[in-house]
What does this fold into?
Amino acid sequence: RRRLQPTPDANMSDVMMRHLLGSDKKIEHDPGPKGESGEGDACLVMMFLVIAAAGLIMLYEKFIRKHDGLEVDEGDFVEDVKDTTDAKAKAAEEGVTFTQVALTNEMTAEEKADQAAQAKWLTPSNENPIKKAVLTLLVFYCLWVFLLTLGVMGTGFKLLGGKDSAKMFDVADNPISALMIGILATVLVQSSSTTTSIIVSLVGADELSVKTAIFMIMGANIGTSVTNTIVAMGHFANKDDLRRGFAAATVHDVFNMLNVLIFLPLNWIYPFFEKMTYEMAKDQEPCDGDDCNKTEFLKPYISPYSKGVANYDKNVAKYISQNWCAGQCGKSYSTDAMKKISEEVCTSSTDCSNVHKNYESNWMSKGYLAKKRAPAYIVGTASGTPAEFHYDKPAACSTSTKFFDNDTNFTSTVAGSLTAGTCYEVCGSKVKTGLCDKRLLKGGLLLDDWDMTDNGAGTFLTVVSLISLCSCLFVIVYMLQIIVKGTAARILRKVVGFNGYLNIAIGCFITIMVQSSSITTSTLTPLAAVGLINLEDMLPLTLGANIGTTLTGIMAATVATSNPVQAWQVALCHLFFNIFGILVWYPVPIIRKVPLDGARFLGKMTTNPKWGKVFPLVYTFVVFFIIPGIAYGITAAASA
It folds into this structure.
């Protein structure tokens, strides 16, 4: 009997559904067959479709649509008291209470604009329900592309700044430099999760102390808020939207900076974060076997698409940050074996700086060279001087003698009596060299099909993703103005305006699901920009996002296979830094006004008639690049 084969159409349908919806079983990248059905192609096509849609909408609005002349203008605000009664009656007929949209003479121009924007949302809509349903599906589609775009943009920034950001961790020798390095490294890779993972790996490898790592985490907390600040700039076409959006974005910045202002000096004086988290985490054990599967929610569905476009090799950044550029021994030597090697090549039991120009004191943190620091070859010298240390086979070594008699017990008959000029093989061919010279781009459409360089791919992804980001925001806001009007807007206002602490829980839940505070705040910023969410409601949502992103780090710590105590310490420090900050700045209304007023001031700066529209760009560069960059430069020069 002949077996029935699936038709090509059925295969294509299955592949397309898998690429559009993601797999519910696999979380690793599975690009499927070569060709138009790959995730990388699909991701770029979806991004360019949204860019094209935004362009068509702009053309439609400018040249085709007949405007009804109902747009709010400053001339609409009249001073006659009698008009307020008429406005009240008219508003009541439309189902909108006068208190929601009242425009009184005591209001500032900004407050009038905010009230008018909110009134526009609360006004009942007469749009066709079928049209609303279709647009709702399109909004979800644009939100999906928005999430993909953020992932692609992060990859672009990592390709451009991944190696440079990894090099920064070498010069962190005081709290201020650690803070600035945390900010700059996070801005360069557009991900606090990436920075935190590097910090955890450095702590686990004894390259960085927990005390210094805590200040880097504070910097990463500030650096991660640059994403929604960039998103807010997408509203530059409307000065009121830009003011509201920029205030909503920078309330995240202001809160994090105020947190640092309090807790950095306190923790500098006495390391209470380090001591508190150590007591909480000191009994943690490494995970083993099937328990080492990190819980992920939305990321498994987004990651295949961004990796399909460009797959970033994060191991290269770890090699650079942990100083494996010279070489890394692939053998696992015993403690006694490393002591024998150290006795031959080191000046003393505490100093081995003679072995290599890349040497750092933590190579000898236990009184002997760390296991993976073993050389490929050593060359005997005159009696009384350390043997030569080499990661590559010296040209003069035509032949070599094994330093260890066997690779099981690591006994050595030559240890302590090396012959001058004789080459001895230690790790030999098992030493990996050139690890820091590897490419950051290790796969995806841009490498496999387009053969782009790291910098070329990073530049392309950054430019395209920024255009796509602005297009997504424009299209989403345009369609929401049709969908979320009247009843829907009123329900949303009641939910986010019900209780600030509920908003914290909502922000935390959303962030846990998407596993990125940048995605949460960047999604909410456009809603605040168009007046649907006010700044008082945006603050607790942002605070919840701050807590949610720390829980992602805690989930990662639960699957740590080595140095779990340090991993837990870093994750818990991140969590309590934000919790303590909320306890200081949110519960008391008069203190809560400090971050709110700071964000309002920054938002108002964008309304300046001369330089208001360039202020967000100047602010972003000064706060996130120039100040941390200067501080890093001074620290690097002092260390050199």
Notes: The first strand starts at residue 311 and ends at 312. Residues 1-29, 68-85, 87-103 have pLDDT under 50 and may be disordered. The CA atoms of residues 114 and 121 lie 11 Å apart.
